[in-house]
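Justification of computing resources. Each target in the renewal requires a structure prediction run like the one illustrated here; the chain below, 307 residues long, is used simply to show the kind of job we budget for.
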Amino acid sequence: MVQVMDILKVANQNVLEPGMSLIYSQEQQVPGSIEYQLKRYYALQPWSGSDTGMLIYHYDAKKPLNSYLELRFCISGNRFCEEKSCAQCEHLPTNNCFGKHETVDTFTFHFTATFLRPYVQNVKVSNYKDDVLAFKHPNAFTKVFPLCNRKRGVLDTLLNHSYTGALENIFINAKVHEILLYSLACLVDEKEEGFTCKFLADPAGRERIYEAREILLQHIGDPITIKELSRKVAMNECYLKKGFKEIFGTTIFDFYQQQRMEHAKYLLYEKGLSVTDISALLGYSSISHFSAAFKKHTGLKPCELLK
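Resulting structure tokens:
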């Protein structure tokens, strides 16, 4: 069975993952500028894993200019068809085509210290994220995180856009910066000591909080109560709420609502789903309840955004 972590580990290498058949590849390698690689695979074996991202901080203390940030992503569930001449395709196999393949897609983005330097010039480094961007953090590290709807939306647009030539370069440049922004937001400025919630000083306690966040993201369309969430991560409800607020700076409810509404915007804009369908997919009991929640988050009703 193909595992998502195995794919992430070799995503930036010219190595064909066992059990995967490469069907499409695209890359742009411009030293000092945007560098990325996109690969689409057809899984020859059962696929296991949820959409995942990885941020790798490569730090070279002796040669700081050799330091760089790397982002890797693996997403599944998209479909790809090599046959471009099919008329009125209904996704059925024909003599020359076996229909659309469900794909596993990997992305790798490379950001050099030189490329990132303009963003930290004249900036007083005051937090963990700035530290990483300025390559002031003294130790290399790797962080794996689940994909939120914003990052998944950006990756989907990189796979499915109609820009060509110079406009394509502008579009890709904008989206690569966007995925960098959202990925850096996943870096939590954790204090190694002095947590207000003492139980967070224990790595196992923090791990349960991260696990709770991942479960929330997996239940965007299937609402889960805090009581159910606390059972899943084996943590007292009170501890869970306090720990979540301290690590992520927001309540469980506000975080969950924000993610649901971001997903709703994605379904409206990118997928073209109706308000009725989105309301049902997100588990709302009525369209009016969904519209009210959407307006509270965005300031507009869903139908007003589509005008």
